[in-house]
Predict the structure.
Amino acid sequence: MANNENLGSKKMEQSAENENFLTRFFTFFSKYQNIIYGVIIGILVIILAILAFNRFYLQKKNAEASAQIVQPIHWFVQGDTASLKKALEGDAENDGFLDIASGYKITRTANTANYYAGLTYMKLGQKDEALDYLKKFKKKEDVLWYACQATIGDLYDEQGDEAKAISYYEKAAKGKDPYFTPITLFKLGQMYERKGDWKKALDAYETIEKDYYTEYNKMSIAQYAERAKANASK
């Protein structure tokens, strides 16, 4: 009987708490309803504005940029100096990578143009400019992004900046590309060897063996792994 009374008392207390909460809620809402409605309307306006921007402006810009980049990529593939310069700067009828990167900044194609501009500068031997544009390339296309980090690592390695080279190789090695990743891991292993970090070098070589065994054999990594293992155990 006492238990029933206790349960009844708890239910009444819970009911009273619920009523108090509802009372406070409706009092608060009544007091600030104009502000609440204003915030809701503001949020809806922002959402509609974003949707309209994407549909009527961004999609159009993306389509324009995608069409524009076809010709400079064609020049890039041709590979001679005159074509590479046109790939960067365009001609009377077509934009080059530089104009696409600056004129369509908010599009994915502009991001891709930064990457190709960096590669083009590399082919022209302008390494500082190449580095500037490659570092502008954002992680939107994963495969290209990992390859880009490896290329930046190469440039820093050429400059003798081992710390930055290793940092970018480590980023690139997180990709899963069957071609680029084992090559990057090998470069990373070589960098670790130069620093005398044989344990990390061995880890890099063993990752190639474990995840990319075909490339491990093609690249004759076993000899490097054995050397790293011997030095790591000293």
About this structure: Confidence is low (pLDDT under 50) at residues 1-8. The first helix runs from residue 2 to 68.
